[in-house]
Amino acid sequence: MANAYLQRDQPAGVPPLELTGERTLPDVPAENYWYRRHLAVYEWIGARVIGKRVVDMACGEGYGSEVLSRGAESVLGVEANPEAFEHARLRYTRQNLRFERGLVETHGEPHSFDAVVFLQTIEHVHDPVAVLRHFAQLLARGGAVYVSTPNLLTIAPPGAAKSSNPWHIKEYRAHEFDALCRTVFGEVELLGLFHARRMRAHALALRLGWDEVHPRLRVTKSFYDRFTPAIAASDFALRPYGLDRALDFLAVCRSPRHLR
Q1: CA-CA distance, 241 to 226, in Å (whole number)?
Q2: Which domains, from first to last, does the chain contain?
Q3: Cα 173 to the chain's mean position, in Å?
């Protein structure tokens, strides 16, 4: 029986990655909700880095770096994990896209990038301030750092200090994440990622008792076998209000304090 958590239908010569919970992956149908949730943010950033020099830190499988490279002048994907790095290098080949193995805390030359992208990873690091300071050093004048992280209030049980995700070291409330970013940057725009379209309709159905109905009708598997793979990036939306109810936060950080 095929591994349900192994990537499907990879190009010839590209080793598939297995879903471990440390990072999301495309081409794993059961993971599609999380993949599209991350992809929505990459696509939003991609529209704002057209013609720019971009580094995608902790790029994982590489799909996000490829999205950014569709309009950017150049994209460098940096990944420490050897299997993920090799997969990204082999799978995503564009003239303006390259991958390097390295640590987010140290990799890169000062003032080399117009945009630094660091999505769904700051909750994994022991010294987030040091990481943000390093990113600030990488920026060319006028550049921006894009950092996303899950919302503690929606990923963890009520009152809990952290979710059960073993890879996460620290999860943030909106004001905590904003304060963290402002220790390094003078300008921070904080946005929240929310359900939209079919995911919003699904959330409404859950509030109306859908979770009690589908087991009684014995349609749970058949429904979600169709529903989950159909989720798209357009089923999520970013907005600057109602942040306590957001799924994830995205901070757009400018004006590093040491440069002001």
Answers
A1: 32
A2: 29-195+236-259 (3.40.50.150)
A3: 17
- For the chain, strand residue ranges (E) read 53-57, 74-79, 97-101, 113-119, 139-150, 185-195, 236-239, 248-256
60-78 per-position pLDDT tens digit: 999 999 999 999 999 999 9
Whole-prediction pTM value? 0.94
* CA gap 103, 67 in Å, rounded: 22
pLDDT at 174: 98
Residue 183 neighbours by CB under 8 Å, 6+ apart: 129, 132
Euclidean distance between CA atoms 252 and 254, whole angstroms: 7
Which segments in the chain show pLDDT lower than 50? 1
Give pLDDT, residue 208. Answer: 82
| Longest Cα–Cα distance in the chain | 61
- Find out whether 217 and 185 touch, Cβ atoms under 8 Å: no
94: DSSP letter = B
Residue 75 contacts residue 65 (beta carbons within 8 Å): yes
Token pair belonging to 243: 């942040």
